[in-house]
Amino acid sequence: MLELEHEIKRLVIETLNLEDLKPDDIDPAAPLFVEGLGLDSIDALELGLALQKSYGVVLASDSKENRRHFASVRALADFVSTHRTKS
Amino acid sequence: MDEPLALEHLLVHGRPAGHPVARREGQVLDFAAFRTRAAGWHAAFAAHGGQRCALFHEDTFEFAAALLGAWHAGVCIYLPADARPATLDALRSHVDGFAGRAPADQTALTPIPEAEATFRPLSPDLAALVVYTSGSNGQPTAIPKRLSQLSSEVVTLGALFDEEAGDAPVLATVSHQHIYGLLFRVLWPLAAGRLFDAHGLPYPEDIVAALRPGPALLVASPAHLKRLPASLDWASVRGHLRGLFSSGGPLSPEALQACRELLGRAPVEVYGSSETGGVAWRRRDTEEAASWRVMPGVEVRAGSSSDDEVLTVRSPHLDLPEGAWFTTEDRARAVPGGFELLGRRDRLLKLEEKRVSLSAMERALVEGGLVREARVLPLADGHRVTLAVVAVPEAAGWRLQEAGGRRSLNQALREKLAPHFESSALPRRFRYLEAMPVNSQGKSTEAALAALFDPRRPPFQVLERAPERVLLSVEVQEGSPYFDGHFPGTPILPGVAQVEWALLLGREHFALPPDFLRMETLKFQQVIPPGTQLTLELTWAAESGRLGFKLTSAAGAHASGRIVLGGGVG
């Protein structure tokens, strides 16, 4: 799980081109959006696409559910580990 | 003072054979030599047959002869700002040929010796020139000029300044490959019958030496005037200075002060742009904020109400449809006889459907107190456009970066902006410099700023800096595109990338000539894996054209060598 968290941190940094940030700088439990990393809704779209490409996870059409998955790196790792179709 | 000649009739009417035109290394080149050379160029252009030709030449006399020769052959001259391979390459699809300098795989036109020519008057409607300016989107924009636009501007300069300038020869720190240098150090002197120097003066020491023999006019830019060392012996030569001109960008109060103290006079500042040509001028001998005086024949409208402050221009130097006005990028207020400039117009941008004022963001950054100067620019980042900041930090800003890394300063600046801007508009990427990158015209072009975000450029800090040596700390980032495929599983920094970094960072610290000639004593002693903190020592020997580099780290020496460069500084 820790490994997957690290992988997802790298994916976030690479996908969103977050300069000056290393995986270890991201608190896995901290919110990704608004506070915390300060990401916005367009970043969420980009991130959704990247997760789909890397892990084959498909986001639900339920936006409340998605918001929960995107809450933090840890939440994303949970979601990916249970829904992934690619390894 | 001789009778001024119109550019259209310069070679037809002519001047006495022995009339001095230019000076090259102490030797005077007369009108007969000029006419002969122009005939040679005319023959070369006519034989080539193309309608559009790029022209780059280091020597201003040769450049002037080529320009007149081309015009008499009906050729439109495209003016590259420098002779870098990329600049010349970009012109390929626009021109039929290259004169003076050409891309490596083409032959440059050269004058045909002993050619004869009968020159007929030029048409004022001749498509004479295309110059380039960096547009707001960072792409160079082509600006075509008819001969009448250039010749009317020359007449205006003569009417304003001929009397005071007398027959003092023209010296210049600016390149004739830009419209300002072209007008002031080539076309105006030719029309006025005034001698000009065939070589520019890149360094302040050269200015002192060039002023020593006798009276002269100096055509300069703020980039040079703000860097006049007080240590040189200006006092013994400034009496020879009969006129001083500055254009290309705003002249700072410090530069103005330096001109008054060291050169003994305030320059004639000329306001205009590549598009508009000269619009107004002023000479701040006394008042600090003297207003701009509109040039004869030029009309301006400056807003009277607060929401209509944009300066618009109509003039014979501009090719506009009947009744049209040209809208500048500046805001101004009308005052009797002229106007006062109020700063740049707002640069507005739509980001993900939301309108953002880049100018307002720049002001907010500076008002936050952490940076002294800031430029905001849009960058394409995958699917979206995000904003990036290039800033010169104040001491407080540098302290933040030293204490907590670049990220702390980034975050602090984002926090300063957060109350005023949508969170999706907040800048994502930041570069901090000790000074804004400027070209020889003293401008920070959008292209130069955007280059700072090129992923191929490594992040670095200046450790030590001297005129001929810099010591940099360079970070080899894991994400550098140079590790892609080099090699899978065992990434090491390619040797060509090491040389490229030396050259790239060398260009940011020294005024290097455009062309790579060869390498010398190249050694690669140890591989460089991702994450290495490198020290790069660069030394520049201008006389021999050699840029030396040495890459070291805690692990010892990695690489060293010398890059030999040549060609004119554009």
Automatic annotation (TrEMBL), chain A:
Top-level taxon of origin: Bacteria
SUPFAM superfamilies for this protein: ACP-like (SSF47336)
Protein name according to UniProt: Acyl carrier protein
Ranges where the Carrier domain occurs: 1-84
Pfam hit, one: PP-binding
Automatic annotation (TrEMBL), chain B:
UniProt key word Manganese: no
GO BP, one annotated term: fatty acid metabolic process
InterPro entries per UniProt: AMP-bd_C_sf, AMP-dep_synth/lig_dom, ANL_N_sf, ApeI-like, HotDog_dom_sf
Keyword Ligase included in the entry's annotation: yes
GO molecular function: medium-chain fatty acid-CoA ligase activity
Pfam family, one: ApeI-like
Domain of life from the UniProt record: Bacteria
Keywords: Ligase
Domain ApeI dehydratase-like: start-end pairs: 467-562
Domain AMP-dependent synthetase/ligase: 115-300
Family statement: Belongs to the ATP-dependent AMP-binding enzyme family.
Protein name: 4-coumarate--CoA ligase
Lineage: Bacteria, Pseudomonadati, Myxococcota, Myxococcia, Myxococcales
